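Still learning. Show one?

>
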Amino acid sequence: MTTTRWLDAEEALAWRAWVDLNAQLSARLNRELQAASGLSLSDYEILVALTDDDVPDHSLRMFELGERLQWEKSRVSKQVSRMEARGLLERRHCADDRRGAFVDLTEAGQAAIDAAAPSHVALVRELFFEGLDGEQVRSLGKFATGVLARLADGS
């Protein structure tokens, strides 16, 4: 039988702060983004994924988009359908895989992210980075990279 190694008081405080920060920050970013641009945070995440420098022709397979965002297949499909109805994306069938599809960024989708990005980035800077010095930003990046590496390893 394995004994649970419980969080100490300091770890528990840090963990709760992280959970609360993540929830409150996501909610605030979503509200502000919708008010400023009409895009949800989910819309924005998909548009960012499709406009990454490493995405040729602003097109990804549905499964690739899901992997990038760490979303379930049904969530990707529903979100893409909502965005497709608004003209931000187009779904294109894959000739090599009858069940597969590509998600393509439209001109309207590009215009939407171009319009939304400046105020969204300013809000991220204000809410998240304001008050941090360079060393704190580097430490935060190192911390996040380490956690992501452990998640990728399955540990």
Summary: The chain has a mean pLDDT of 95. The chain has one domain: 31-153. Helices lie at 9-37, 41-51, 62-69, 73-85, 107-129, 134-153.
